[in-house]
Specification:
By secondary structure, the protein is mainly alpha-helical. The two termini are 45 Å apart. The model has no long low-confidence stretch (mean pLDDT 94). The chain folds into three domains: 98 residues; 65 residues, no CATH class; 42 residues. Strands 1-2 form a two-stranded antiparallel ribbon. It is flat, with a radius of gyration of 26 Å. The relative contact order is 0.10.
């Protein structure tokens, strides 16, 4: 099923990447509760459906007239309620994690002893990502750096980093074209014309915008990097 093959992977990825994106880890206690509700609920809900398939029940029926199927359907229904408890546990986990975010703060950027380069940055990452272009010598580049003692090293000097300025043009055009497509599906021609013309105007305006980039200066980079390295070193000493 899609839960066992995909949803569990999505949930694992969500828990894994959450501290890198948000700066604090999810609450472990409620995470374990959610895991067990999901795991048990999955088997209770879907194993009976496999049995029903062998018994001849087709998919997506809205009623049955075979009493031999009822017991298995009741068990599957109980499994669905257990999964619902898993979803509820995850919602509570998000609330508790946000409430206790300072206690669960990821100050190093590497809460799982990661292997790849993104874990060498802060959580959330610096807006410029890397102060210097990393030199990769192994598939697990960050592990290689930690083993060789080259992780978190300060360079002799920092160079300016070329950055693009933020713009909402892409989002605006995306929303306009979404509305345009909606209008085409339902033949709302005034909406199609207005949103299509607005998309062209937004595009042209963006094309003539010359203030599209800037440089992050070395002193700002050095300040941010020093704060990150100091946090890592204080954690290692503790």
């Amino acid at each position: 099923t899609i839960i066992g093959g995909a949803v569990f992977g999505y949930l694992a990825g969500f828990s894994y990447w959450f501290p890198k994106a948000m700066g604090y880890k999810l609450d472990e206690k409620w995470g374990k509760r959610a895991f067990w509700f999901w795991q048990i609920g999955f088997y209770v809900a879907f194993m009976p459906l496999y049995v029903l398939g062998f018994l001849g029940m087709t998919r997506r029926v809205n009623h049955t007239d075979n009493p031999d199927w009822n017991m298995w359907l009741y068990i599957a229904c109980a499994g669905a309620f257990i999964i619902a408890l898993g979803v509820l546990s995850q919602l509570i986990q998000l609330y508790v994690s946000y409430r206790d975010r300072e206690k669960n703060r990821d100050v190093t950027g590497d809460p799982w002893n990661g292997h790849t380069l993104e874990w060498s940055t802060m959580s959330p990452p610096q807006f410029y990502n890397f102060a210097q272009e990393p030199v990769v010598k192994d598939i697990d580049a960050f592990t290689d750096m930690k083993e060789n003692g080259t992780a978190y090293q300060r360079p002799e000097k920092y160079a300016p980093i070329h950055m693009p300025r933020n713009t909402g043009a892409g989002f605006i055009m995306g929303m306009l074209l979404t509305a345009c497509g909606f209008g085409m599906v339902w033949h709302i021609w005034w909406l199609v014309i207005v949103t299509f013309l607005a998309t062209i105007v937004t595009y042209i305006k963006r094309c003539y915008d010359n203030d599209i980039d800037y440089y992050v200066q070395p002193d700002e980079i050095e300040k941010i990097e020093n704060e990150h390295i100091a946090a890592v070193q204080s954690t290692l000493k503790a």
